[in-house]
Protein 1
Amino acid sequence: MAQSSSSEHTKDIKSKTMNKQRLLISTIIPSYNRADTVGETIDSILSQQVDADMEIVIGDDCSTDNVREVLLAYKKKYPDIIRLIFHEQNMGLGANWATCVKACRGKYICNCDNDDYWHNPMKLQLQLDYMESHPACNILITNHRTHNRTTGEIKECQAQIDHSDIQQNMWGGGHFCNATIMYRANFMKAHLDLDEFIHRRLSLQDWPAWVILTAYTDIDLLPVSTATFGIETVSITRPDTVERLAKRYEGDREVCRYLGEIFPEKFPFTDEDWDRYVAGRLIAQAYKVNDYASAKKYRKQHPTGLSPIKRLCTYSWLTFQIFRIFKKLSLLKFPCTIRKLFVHLQCFSSEPSGSSQRKLTG
């Protein structure tokens, strides 16, 4: 487990949290497994150089590894900062996060998932200064970087916000990192029905919150890199099999249904549209991982969710493999006849463009 940088820094952290008159910033870490990375996440928050008190609220959603031992060790070392919520049964990411939000006591609330971390030690101070000097700002993001934990590659990324229709932009998934966000807590709690997040056991936390909150406010961008998004080989948003992707989409169904109930005119939801969209995504995953049985299964269940060429190529193992070869060739950088042919075949029709078919984050 990673340790704090020095005993002097530890004393400074503890002295800050003992001052009850100072402004408090809450940071949420939704926890599920990841015992190997959560220490780095916590240490990056503890290392923040900020003129404010802070608390770290960690909700563990019934992990199956030894992450609770790691969290308890941090709690013992930083009892005035670390606050733990241990669920006895799995609630889902959205419900776990909402429980943590309700427990937060700070004027501002931040997020940092348990495989992400803050590389900029001034993150909180920079955002605090901005929020305090811009009282109309309710959500503040920054630029970020990605860290591929398999290859070790780190890339800087620029956050992108379309202010022409901020809510529609969020419906498309947003182009920024959740770990960079700072919310004004009173605004956030006033406009999110956290009990509904918990009751519905929503599988997502960040995306539905963005869609709901941007109905009432814009998002400000501070053009500095502060947080690192950890890219895992396999994760909730990067399932490696068709079955796992199908399970993820079942959870996402309830999220989209909930948003459709809140905003029926802007984001109408029907199960029929959703099933059509998911069928196309699952068969695309089947092609990607070479799972012919799943492609055939979902083509039979939802035949209208596919373009003619994709549907045709699921009728036999041979045509399935030919399609995969053509698709690989179509992704090559250089122009070629086969690539043009593939694109032409794909243009016979496109997947349905119903309002339920938004590009999910991740």
Protein 2
Amino acid sequence: MSFKINLQNQPSTATGSLKRTTITKGGSQRTNSKVSGLKEMSKTMLQQISDVAWLVHQGEEKLGILNQDIQGHYTYITGRDLIKFDDEDEVKTHFGNITLFTEKIGTPLQTTEKFFIRGHEVDYEMPFALDKDHPDYDEALPLYTKIEGSDVYYAAGFYCINFEKGWKHAHGPKLATLIKYGFEGPFKTEDEMRQRLKLLNRLRRKVNE
């Protein structure tokens, strides 16, 4: 089930008139234009940043960033809003493009600058790190948000997460996921995390034998 999304007014690229789009329960989309005969707005497309993150484009405009979490859910961040989707179909319905994940902008975005929080790499372009004066600051976890002032926290670095079916790896997971399932980390490198992950799953198999 998709999350409820508030009505938003969006300017038409053709004349500057307004369109109103409603996302209803179940993900159906209804668009009403105040002026008939307008040209169709540019198709929304994705440009890959990493294995689980994309820049969202509409024509020459960059709208925001789409992220996929370890459980296959999606979060769309515009800088003002954070919208959650359960799966790819809800994302495609929201953007009105059924080929969103197959017809991507050809060249992946090449980023030369990496962001680190307390020595741990962040898989996000513009993180807002929690400093020591923040009430939710954690000495053991390098926490950050993707929207300034948000109370949805992410943990920089690499982690092993203890899901019911086995230990899984994650880079920059939500703090809520770490707390819910249990974890080891943060690790500063992916290789270090994967070595520990193999050992944890080996020990788990022995326990279950």
Protein 3
Amino acid sequence: MTMRGALGFVFGSVAGVVCGVAAGLLLAPRSGAESRAMAADAMNDAWDSAVDAYERGSKAVTDKVGAVRPSVDATSDELRAKVDLARERMDQLRDSLSETVAATSAQVQEAVSSVTDKVTEVAAEMDAADEVAAEGVQVEVVEEAGEVVETVEAEADADAEAVEAEDADAE
């Protein structure tokens, strides 16, 4: 039942009681004083009955709330403890993850530096080898019958073999 329907029922009941009392007073075979005394007694009895019902209901509600409260308090304390434990665990996981990321980052930086150094060394060695091999090479271009013939002296071959041998020893 909606709140509006409940209020309508209560007001209708009160209006019905008022109309019934008025009709009873007007149509009663007793005298006015006697009817007023009976009406006053009936109203006092109804009032006392309503007060008693309110007190019984209030006590019942208070007792039920008092009986449920320890259970609710225990459950809420348990939930708070679980939430606190979960927060602590999340903090631990966050710290652990941060440490792992920092350590891994340092390892990656070291690996990148190592690879960069090796690449630089190999590039320097290759540049040096190219310069040594190029020093001993002499190229002559001779044109015979429309063809270009290149001749390379034997020294270039020997120098190139010496450089390759030094590279093999260095590795």
Protein 4
Amino acid sequence: MESKDWILLISLAAIWGSAFMFIKISAVDFGPILLVALRLLIAGLVFMPLLLQKKNRFLFKPYLPGILIIALISNALPFTLFAFASLGATSNMLGILNGTTAFLTTLIAYFWLNESISIKQIFGLCFGFIGVIILVNPSNGSITILASICALIGSLCYAFNGNYLQKYHYNSNKIVLIGWSMLFGGLLMMPIAVFNLPDQIPSFNSFLALLWLAVVSTGIGYLGFVRLIDRIGAVKTSTLTYLLPVFSIIWGAIFLNEKITVIIFVGFIFVMMGMYFANSINTKEANNKS
């Protein structure tokens, strides 16, 4: 990897890791549903100049079924679940539980894509499961049980989407899929958002948090993600998974004064080990194929 690839990788991890902090800031004022609707619509507009290019316009119709599935499973549903979870959890907990996506993806791939699971990956699933149990237990005052369930189901949605893309859209144009799915995800949320408007106008800080979430974390972030895959491949780009929880903990501690308790630290270590072992064999296999 060249130095500019490392810069893009770390920058993207820092941007996505900050998303949980800004969700925490803005969800209270906007409400989870309106926040997600606006986030997706604005992020979709970031993609619009690319979507309207001649080479991409003609892909809309054949990609439409996949766009709608991704809009629901990868955008509207998990974004909403994490927004609701933020009302009962610290941002660092959201980032750590989001990390469970890695070994949930491995588990789904085993049952749906018939991919084999090695001993290392089984250890990874066990470590990850232990980490989740540590983090969501009632003695952890940093998150409620309901928030834990929302975050884990949201991570399960991301894991399902990863396998769906691998199975049906491995060679598809990711810009078209991601961009249109964001717009449609926002449109799907708007009818519900109309009946869930806040009682008062959100604060200035909440508007800034929304803009960061929509334009930087979601719009520019996903453009950088696609760019990184094109430059260094999906395998090396997957190392983002390990960096996201780290940055979510750092930003939460610096800007929200969130404490890193012993329970959070131990659970984090187990989740990180789960991610590492769950992905280790897949990485080798992918390298052999390349």
